[in-house]
Write a structure and sequence with these properties.
26 helices; five-stranded mixed β-sheet; elongated; alpha+beta; OB fold (Dihydrolipoamide Acetyltransferase, E2P)
Length: about 675
């Protein structure tokens, strides 16, 4: 990027970040997830590091927060409240330590890991704290009594919210001076975080919803809104909580860890999960643990704060911009972030549907690197107005599927390209058609190689027949070599067939054949789903299996019989009927029987009725099961599953990163189970 291009990009980034920050901090009306702001600020910071002469005094990187609200008396902080620079991965953390080493002029000839190891020893370790998603506050005590409590504001001037902070039980009104009597006459300055726990967040939003009032988007906004209430009684009703994290008055503390010990002795609530780490490896372990375990906490965290433990060293390192060098906020992978659209390509599905896919500059979201995101169809592309070259906000739909949420048109340069849907299939060259009333374009060539390939991909998937170790790459090899033309051909393969293929040795070929043969039977519902009948998902497949009991009866069913099945309408009934009437499909089913594939009758597939009448929803990442395996366990014990939470839901099984379903379950009073609790139910 040239200097001129960087200047234009920085101007646009600053304008957008300032707009987002103003709405969130000053108006309390956030336009995007905070992680989106973080992503844009990270790009801005990196670009300013590359072009330091382009840094301006009004850059968001040089600011701490928004302007204080006018409803409260202003308070000037005894010492400026700084913000922290962010880190998002191990590379960022290593860069942070490298910058510290350079600042301290640590002479290590070969640099890199050796320099960092040397710096770790010299620094004497790091103190790690959970980064609470709340509101930063400062407390001033005189003669051991709380006289002022204030918000951070712009770091220099905050808002005096003393009466509201006094309603929080975790904040002591009188300090336990005891052995600290000598400091009684000295102003004691404490910094901490105010937050609201998940239970109270759900309760208050439920109350607001009943009143027809606007609900809060997240706990941080609610905590901030509560502290800014003019009536302390309203704040008291919110049942806020607080952790103290810094003692600014000099008590002779040598380390930040020691500081936390003093805070506890003075009567402050401190976070019990904070930990001293001697090096970055231990810091990373602490970070990774809490990224996975954060859902077990009753409050929200969005990362950890890592600080040089030695206070003298902390002071020596000083400040860069408006952030201390000796501390960094190591963020968890965001649920949403920004990136650029490099290209838009077309994928052909098993039913012939053309799906546009955005090829992205890789970005970490929710612990996963995302490089592609579905654009669904032509209408969605037009709705988003997304173009090749655009900067976009990317999230994960249902916390799983990468999805473009918004196009940041403000960052356009004029060089972006509009995408036009192809008139011919990009694989077979066959005609492409969009049926009236439908959103999707379809390839009309039944013999399209892409359609057949996708159908086989679907057959082996975990949610279908689940042939372990046989994925798209192996299928591509088998098809390109002419060894398989359909899914039934798997069961004709021999070990010798695979040995001629790339990357197949004796053992790997044997394992692949063994895996295929171990999946030579399936419950009826799974087999129906694996066939890839248009409009037939796993739930519909289960309903069909329960209705007809056997593949033979289903294949012989008339369209009007299919309409008697739960939730099946005319379009789906016609699709199922047409599929079984198709001569190619009839030959395929006969072929499955000939190669020895056994389709179990539905009553044979079900183990018990212990979950009969109960509906389960799964969310988040489970440790020992896939979501599909969990749903299958429910069905084999007579229960039902659903993809969404409602009043009819009996249980939500929640893994790591559960998302919005968890919040809705809490709101509706649905019982929430851990994976361990669920497995006990189905034993």
């Amino acid at each position: 990027m040239t200097r001129a291009e960087a200047k234009k990009r920085l101007e646009k980034l600053r304008e957008l970040v300032n707009q987002y920050r103003y709405n969130r901090l000053v108006l309390d009306k956030p336009l995007v997830e905070e992680s989106v702001e973080d992503s844009l600020k990270k790009e801005l910071f990196d670009l300013e590091q590359e072009f330091p002469d382009l840094v301006t005094p009004d850059s968001p990187s040089q600011r701490v927060g928004g302007q204080p609200l006018k409803q409260f008396k202003k308070f000037t902080h005894p010492e400026r409240m700084l913000s922290f620079n962010d880190a998002f991965d191990t590379e960022d953390m290593e860069d942070w330590l490298d910058r510290i080493a350079r600042t301290l002029n640590m002479p290590v000839p070969d640099g890199g890991p050796a320099r960092r190891s040397f710096a770790e020893q010299k620094l004497g370790g790091f103190y790690c704290e959970l980064k609470i998603d709340g509101l930063a506050i400062e407390l001033v005590y005189q003669n051991g009594i709380l006289i002022t409590g204030a918000t951070r504001g712009d770091g220099v001037t905050g808002e005096d919210v003393t009466q509201n902070l006094k309603t929080i039980e975790a904040i002591p009104l009188n300090l336990t001076m005891g052995a600290f009597a000598e400091f009684a006459k000295v102003p004691i300055v404490i910094r901490g975080e105010v937050f609201i726990n998940k239970k109270n967040f759900a309760r208050l939003n439920q109350e607001l919803e009943k009143k027809g009032e606007k609900i809060y988007a997240n706990p941080r906004n609610l905590a901030a809104g509560s502290i800014r209430q003019l009536d302390p009684a309203v704040t008291a009703n919110r049942r806020l909580d607080s952790f103290a994290y810094a003692l600014k008055t000099d008590f002779g503390q040598r380390t930040h860890e020691e500081e936390h010990g003093l805070l506890k002795k003075l009567g402050f609530k401190t976070n019990p999960h904070n930990k001293f780490c001697k090096n970055l490896a231990e810091v990373q372990k602490f970070h990774d643990h809490w990224e996975k375990a954060r859902e077990k906490l009753d409050y929200e965290i969005d990362g950890i704060v890592v600080q040089v433990n030695d206070n003298k060293m902390f002071q020596k390192l000083g400040v860069v911009g408006k952030a201390p060098r000796a501390v960094v906020a190591y963020k968890f992978s965001p649920k949403e972030s920004t990136t650029k659209v490099k290209n838009i390509i077309i994928s052909i599905g098993r039913t012939g549907v053309l799906t546009p896919i955005a090829v992205l500059e890789p970005v970490a979201i929710g612990g996963t690197t995302v490089s592609r995101a579905t654009l669904h169809n032509e209408d969605e592309i037009k709705r988003l107005d997304v173009r090749v070259g655009d900067t976009v906000i990317v999230g994960r739909a249902g916390d799983v599927i990468p999805d473009i949420k918004q196009t940041l048109k403000q960052l356009r340069t004029g060089g972006e390209r509009i995408f036009h849907f192809p008139k011919k299939c990009p694989v077979c060259g066959g005609p492409v058609k969009r049926e009236k009333g439908e959103a999707a374009y379809k390839c009309t060539n039944k013999n399209c190689p892409a359609i057949k390939r996708e159908a086989i991909y679907h057959f082996v998937a975990k949610s279908a027949i689940d042939i372990d170790g046989v994925g798209p790459k192996i299928i591509d090899q088998l098809m390109d070599a002419g060894l398989i033309k359909d899914a039934a051909d798997f069961y004709l393969l021999k070990k010798e067939d695979l040995l001629n293929l790339e990357r197949f040795a004796d053992k790997s070929a044997e394992n692949a054949i063994s895996s295929i043969r171990s999946r030579n039977q399936a419950p009826l519902n799974r087999f129906i789903f694996a066939l890839g009948i248009p409009h037939v998902g796993s739930e519909t497949a289960l309903d069909l299996a329960r209705k007809f009991g056997s593949l033979e009866k289903l294949a012989a069913a008339k369209a009007d019989e299919l309409l008697t099945v739960k939730d099946i309408g005319g379009v789906v009934a016609r699709s199922i009927y047409d599929w079984f009437q198709n001569s190619y499909n009839q030959k395929l089913l006969k072929k499955f029987a000939k190669v020895g594939f056994r389709v179990l009758r539905q009553e044979l597939a079900q183990k018990s009725n212990k979950l009969k009448g109960l509906t389960f929803v799964f969310t988040g990442t489970l440790e020992n099961l896939t979501r599909e395996q969990g749903e299958e366990l429910v069905r084999t014990h007579g229960g039902d599953t659903s993809s969404s939470i409602s009043k009819e839901t009996n249980y939500l099984v929640a893994g790591a990163e559960p998302g919005s379903k968890y919040d809705r379950a809490q709101k509706l009073g649905v019982k929430i189970l851990s994976e361990k609790d669920f497995l006990k139910l189905v034993k």
